[in-house]
Amino acid sequence: MGREHWKKIWVGSAGNMVEWFDWFVYASFATYFAGAFFPEGNDTAKLMNTAGIFAVGFFMRPVGGWLLGRVGDRKGRKAALTLTVTLMSASALLIAVAPTYAVAGYGGAAVLLVARLLQGLSVGGEYAASATYLTEASAPKHRGFASSFQYVSMTAGQILGLGLQIVLQRTMSAEALHSWGWRVPFIVGALGAAVVFYLRRTMLETEVYEESADAGVASADKGTVKALWAHKREAFLVIALTMGGTVAYYTYTTYLTKYLSNSAGLPKQTATLVSFCALIVFACLQPLAGRLSDRIGRRPLLITFAVGSTLLTVPIMTMLQHAGSFWPALGLSLLALAVVTGYTSINACVKAELFPTGIRALGVALPYAIANALFGGTAEYVALWFKDAGVESGYYWYVAGCAAVSLVVYLTMRETRDIDLGRVGRTAPGEPAAAAAPVPSGKAAVDSAS
To answer: Measured at the alpha carbon of residue 151, what is the angle toward residues 145 and 154, in degrees to the nearest 5?
Structure first.
């Protein structure tokens, strides 16, 4: 990969890192600020309230996916990426200055809710814009490797959030953290977003987008639901192949620290350190798996993830609950994240490879955001609901079941590694329409998307 490709990957990833730092900081610091916005009561109930607001952010992601996906297809990937980081900066600042329950009653929770709605809008567009940008900006034979940096940057954002949490835990008292210390990461996030805003204003547009005048979608229809509906089979395919991956990912990342603390009984500091160390290794695995997919294809990695997650989720989660100390918890967490890597490392490029350039950002954004709203955003709340009902093991089976559904999709979908991004959705003179792109069509596509 040339210097120009690396520059595009760096700028796209830096913004993604800040976006997800802010997104995940909410989850990782929830145990500290849950009591600030809700009256005294059961600790699990307060966490369920903050998790519910966390989930609301996911339900705004389809709206953000639609709005910002449209911007990305009509105005360019650069325009969409700049807008997403602006929204994220505003939301982080709102949380940083939100009044507590003691000061404004439920007014503070209302500010928290508005901030999460803005975050949902932002991240709903960020995923697709960055996935599309990283996929299009890379050399054709390195798309899997390049797009894997999306989850490297996402994980780096969470690592920075957890790292800051560890520093604050070791330099501040528990009382200070619960009182005002939890605001620090949101201030940091707002400042980081301002820096990335400057970087993204100077970023280069992708050549694939600039040359997309005839790429299968009429100019007036770019980024529209009408154009997406013409590729509805691929859209349903994105929803189905996302289902298992997003539930597993949020289980072993955003929810892991709470699970180790509340269910496994580890001290908060130990639980945070386990997540921090596991995520560093997880980030390093992404480019390796992405590069492997460039050699052997996307489907083998997706199938490996789905089989592993279906069979291993219940025993891993059960053993984690009884881990008891740092090293067993870390080992089991690493095993789980190694399995999830089969999905996270390549899901961005797989989705982007399904759509024509003129509808690619919206095609990835809207169905992915819908899947996340239904499964990823509710994962933590569902887990806490099972715990509150006294049947926590039911959540383990829920995660395994979602992976099993996605396994069926992976087994029936076609390979996308070798397609020409500029030719998806259009037919060269003299070619039959079916040769335009190696994605399922007709009944086969319906079957693979169901």
So the answer is: 145
Single-letter code of the amino acid located at 367: P
pTM for this entry: 0.83
Burial class (CB in 10 A: 0-12, 13-18, 19+), 110: middle
Q: What share of the chain is helix, strand, coil (3-state, %, to 5)?
A: 80, 0, 20
Specify whether the CB–CB gap between 261 and 267 falls below 8 A.
yes
Topology of the domain covering 3-203+222-449:
Growth Hormone; Chain: A; (1.20.1250)
> Using an 8 Å Cβ cutoff, are 445 and 241 in contact?
no
**Could you tell me which of 369, 357, 342 has the C-alpha nearest to residue 249?**
342
d(CA 137, CA 121): 24
What is the residue extent of each domain of the chain?
3-203+222-449
The residues, any chain, with a CB within 8 Å of residue 95's CB and separated by 6 or more, are 26, 111, 112, 115, 183, 186
Q: Please, what sign has the CA dihedral across residues 343, 345, 348, 349?
A: negative
pLDDT digits (tens, 9 = 90+) for 403-443: 999 999 999 999 999 998 877 765 433 333 333 344 343 33
Are 409 and 240 in contact, with CB atoms under 8 Å apart? yes
